């Protein structure tokens, strides 16, 4: 496959910079939708177009169904090989409804309390998402037990930072010794030990609660894992790893999608007005939003899809081949790393007209939503194929519900003196693609909403 020139020892690593998804998209414009880079001593193929992804998923889904996990990921996740989250999909589906409404209502009350003064919407999204994921997984909101929450938050900031870190030993194995001296190994071990202690405590609490309290309480993901453990299909370590996987993926995914979607709406007032109009017509005056209402909000769904096309939560998806395959006319050997650049696929000019313009209409046809599902490979914000994101469905429903509620109950504007052009669109890559500066906004209550 075509390959940019490389340096001795480090190969193409120096070309990745701080924004690898953007750097790789720029390289793909010169070297094509399937190129081969050498990252240190590791040959890595990079896929940057919907066409190549389609060929991958249709012809070689099983060959590329394994995630490539970094050494840091494996250590922090209890060395669990390929966790299967599929059986727990049922739990996500069951718990979505009541939790979504309860937490979104709390969010509305908080926003109302700002009384039209500017506030940090990003911060509220982060807390909302954490609370929902904590309750759905462990059965409790962490703002209740302050000290535990502070500890958990601190550990997860470090956990996500470690997962997002560049580890030279993954690419140039003989340089792994550096991590003994730069303190990285110690950071990984400390974080793993502290999170493990906390999760052990949480699991013991839950087991004690299950034996002492026979009331039919709402089951949470941890209960499902403990039930499976009784049946021996899940070890205690893999139960902890599933919880961490949900925390790492779930919190960041929903948080960044909410943040970018509201940012795009606030900086595109015409689109904001159009979305709001549809929501308010469907919901009517004093009513609270129902699942049935959401199913009719086609323009809102298009807005969220368009936002995720431009700002995918996880811009690069690592895979590893488990057999030799022919892809796009090139041979990819067994056990070879492959990166799918979701960011580049979402901005591929062959698939999208004006790829850098925010245009939800591209997902609409005569007022109906064009269903971009897993069979459409140019839009794949939740990944594609059998390794698509298990929390995708839960996440999407929650995102739609929160944004619909925000637009139903409030009118949105920027703080005084700020125009749409002032909205900062810089990003930073931790585990997910975050907005660098928080979104500051002003919310004016809608006089005809149920909150009024």
* Quaternary structure of the protein: single chain
Number of distinct beta strands? 14
How does CATH name the architecture of the domain at 95-124 and 254-311 and 354-452?
Answer: Orthogonal Bundle
Low-confidence stretches: none
CATH superfamily (homologous) name of the domain at 95-124 and 254-311 and 354-452 = Cytochrome P450
The residue-averaged pLDDT reads: 86
What fraction strand?
5-15%
Helix share, percent? 40-55%
> What distance lies between the first and last C-alpha atoms, to the nearest angstrom?
61 Å
Topology of helices and strands:
Layout: H1 20-31, E1 34-39, E2 42-47, H2 50-60, E3 66-67, H3 71-76, H4 89-112, E4 119-120, H5 121-138, H6 146-163, H7 168-171, H8 178-181, H9 184-212, H10 221-230, H11 236-267, H12 269-283, H13 291-296, H14 298-310, E5 316-320, E6 325-327, E7 330-332, E8 337-341, H15 342-346, E9 364-365, E10 368-369, H16 392-409, E11 410-413, E12 427-429, E13 433-435, E14 440-445
Parallel strand pairs: 2-8
Antiparallel strand pairs: 1-2, 3-5, 4-14, 5-8, 6-7, 9-10, 11-14, 12-13
Binding site for heme: 389
Keywords: Heme, Iron, Metal-binding, Monooxygenase, Oxidoreductase
Cofactor: heme
What is the compact description of this entry?
The chain has helices at 20-31, 50-60, 71-76, 89-112, 121-138, 146-163, 168-171, 178-181, 184-212, 221-230, 236-267, 269-283, 291-296, 298-310, 342-346, 392-409; strands at 34-39, 42-47, 66-67, 119-120, 316-320, 325-327, 330-332, 337-341, 364-365, 368-369, 410-413, 427-429, 433-435, 440-445. The chain has 452 residues and is of the alpha+beta class.
């Amino acid at each position: 496959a075509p390959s940019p020139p490389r340096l001795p020892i480090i190969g193409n690593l120096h070309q990745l910079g701080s924004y690898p998804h953007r750097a790789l998209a720029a390289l793909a414009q010169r070297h094509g939708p399937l190129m081969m880079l050498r990252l240190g001593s590791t040959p890595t193929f990079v896929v940057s177009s919907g066409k190549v992804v389609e060929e991958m998923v249709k012809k070689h889904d099983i060959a590329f169904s394994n995630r490539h996990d970094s050494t840091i990921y494996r250590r922090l996740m209890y060395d669990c090989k390929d966790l299967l989250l599929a059986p727990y999909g049922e739990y996500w589906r069951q718990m979505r409804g009541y939790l979504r409404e309860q937490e979104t209502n709390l969010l509305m009350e908080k926003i109302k309390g700002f009384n039209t003064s500017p506030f940090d919407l990003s911060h509220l999204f982060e807390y909302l998402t954490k609370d929902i994921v904590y309750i759905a997984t462990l059965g409790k909101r962490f703002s209740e037990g302050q000290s535990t929450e502070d500890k958990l938050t601190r550990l997860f900031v470090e956990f996500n930072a470690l997962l997002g870190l560049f580890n030279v030993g993954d690419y140039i194995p003989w340089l792994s010794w550096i991590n003994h001296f730069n303190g990285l190994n110690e950071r990984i071990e400390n974080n793993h030990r502290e999170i493990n202690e906390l999760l052990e405590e949480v699991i013991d609490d839950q087991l004690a609660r299950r034996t002492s309290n026979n009331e039919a309480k709402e089951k949470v993901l941890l209960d499902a894992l403990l039930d499976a453990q009784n049946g021996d299909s899940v070890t205690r370590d893999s139960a902890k790893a599933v919880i961490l996987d949900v925390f790492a993926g779930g919190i960041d995914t929903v948080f960044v999608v909410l943040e970018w979607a509201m940012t795009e709406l606030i900086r595109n007032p015409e689109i904001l007005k159009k979305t709001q109009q549809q929501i308010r017509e469907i919901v009517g005056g004093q009513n609270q939003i129902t699942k049935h209402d959401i199913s009719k909000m086609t323009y809102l769904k298009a807005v969220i899809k368009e936002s995720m096309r431009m700002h995918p939560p996880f811009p690069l998806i690592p895979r590893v081949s488990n057999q030799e395959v022919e892809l796009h006319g090139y041979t990819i050997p067994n056990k070879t790393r492959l990166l799918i650049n979701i960011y580049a696929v979402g901005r591929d000019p062959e698939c999208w007209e004006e790829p850098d313009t925010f245009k939800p209409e591209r997902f609409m046809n005569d007022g109906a939503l064009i269903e971009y599902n897993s069979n459409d490979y140019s839009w794949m914000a939740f990944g594609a194929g059998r390794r698509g994101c298990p929390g995708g469905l839960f996440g999407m429903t929650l995102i739609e519900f929160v944004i619909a509620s925000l637009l139903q109950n409030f009118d949105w504007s920027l703080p005084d003196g700020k125009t749409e052009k002032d909205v900062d669109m810089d990003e930073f890559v931790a585990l997910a693609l975050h907005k660098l500066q928080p979104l500051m906004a002003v919310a004016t209550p809608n006089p005809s909403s149920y909150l009024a």
